[in-house]
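Reviewer 2 asked us to include a model.

Predict the structure of this chain.
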Amino acid sequence: MFSLREPSAAAIARVLADAARHGFSYQDVGVTRGDHPAWLNPLHHRERVGAGEAAYHAAIAQARQWRMYQLPWTRVYPPEAGALPGTVIATVVRHLGFWSVNPCRVVYDEESAGEVSTSAFAIGTLPDHAETGEERFQVEWHRGDDSVWFEILAFARPRHWLARLGAPITRSLQRKFAAEALQAIRAAVAGPPQDAHR
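Predicted model (structure tokens):
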């Protein structure tokens, strides 16, 4: 859904209610888990966001509270939604002078422990999303050097005619989102700056 005005909560809820009745708008659901078809062109961004077990759990908590979408030009609706499989959300985006409401469903939520511990979940597009595809958010804790990483992996193509028409701009916005999302998680894990006078 595209709009020249900021969509109201009621309008977003109507979009979600309709989208929730449908399945995913793409094949290869779960593609972000591993091997992917050669024709897909991934967007892959990864950055160190901290160190240690506390930072690992903080990054997981922030990701599951959708911190990466709490940007001046994006948000998730409803904001209290969790990242449990089957949960339907909308990413609300303001760009190029208009707004878009993009319904998604959480595809999976997985954790693994070991030398590299990971926590990951993915969202997949539903009908009325401007794009079609899947996006994974993953937190990693490498015990060998104690580093904590946040990773975004996305396979998406423009679906709406406006998104297809502005495909280079769409790709640029995806890269902008990834860079700002990584920064948001890193800042949230670091916490507020300490008062130098204490």
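The longest strand covers residues 98-112. The mean pLDDT is 87. We have added this to the supplementary material.
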